[in-house]
């Protein structure tokens, strides 16, 4: 193959030219990427704790609500809010004050891919408006 040598040479030249900029960019973006990953992991952990709490209740369900840009999972027994994961100093009645209670998830419900996509789209829109009070 006649083009392999030229391709490798061009790749090395580009690496020498842009390598330092790529290194600086990866160093600068490392911390925000870690923070985003830790935020996603903690939200998933809180959802699992809330789901386990809801399974232990009679007619238990959970609902995702936001306080600022942090997601909280409110646990319901029938129509009464009984807990929140992760714990917060805000009252449960204040958390669920403007929430749509029809979007609650029951432990035996299966979450579809379309539901996850809608939730991700809502979260992305929420991130786009950081000064908006929830």
Uncertain stretches: none
Number of DSSP E strands: 3
Quote the average pLDDT: 84
What structural class do the secondary elements suggest?
alpha+beta
- Distance N to C terminus: 60 Å
Please compute the radius of gyration using only Cα atoms: 22 Å
* Widest β-sheet, arrangement of strands: 1-2-3
Question: Which percent bin holds the helix content?
Answer: 40-55%
Order of helices and strands: HEEEHH
**Secondary structure tally, helices:** 3
Shape: elongated
Q: How would a crystallographer describe the biggest sheet?
A: 3 strands, antiparallel
Strand proportion = 15-25%
How many structural units, i.e. domains?
Answer: 1
Biased composition (Basic and acidic residues): 107-119
Region (Disordered): 107-134
Structural features, described:
- The N and C termini lie far apart (60 Å).
- The chain has one domain (3-128).
- It is an alpha+beta fold and 134 residues long.
- The protein has 3 helices and 3 strands; from the N terminus they run αβββαα.
- Strand 2 (70-77) and strand 3 (80-85) form a beta hairpin.
- Strands 1-2-3 form a 3-stranded antiparallel beta sheet.
């Amino acid at each position: 193959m006649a083009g392999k040598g030229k391709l490798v040479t061009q790749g090395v030249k580009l690496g020498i030219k842009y390598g330092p900029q790529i290194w600086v960019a990866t160093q600068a973006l490392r911390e925000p990427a870690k923070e985003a990953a830790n935020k996603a992991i903690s939200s998933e952990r809180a959802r699992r704790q809330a789901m386990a709490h809801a399974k232990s209740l009679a007619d238990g369900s959970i609902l995702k609500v936001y306080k600022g840009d942090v997601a909280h999972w409110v646990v319901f027994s029938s129509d009464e809010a009984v807990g929140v994961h992760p714990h917060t100093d805000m009252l449960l009645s204040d958390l669920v004050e403007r929430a749509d209670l029809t979007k609650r998830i029951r432990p035996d419900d299966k979450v579809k891919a379309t539901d996850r996509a809608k939730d991700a789209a809502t979260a992305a829109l929420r991130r786009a408006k950081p000064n908006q009070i929830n």
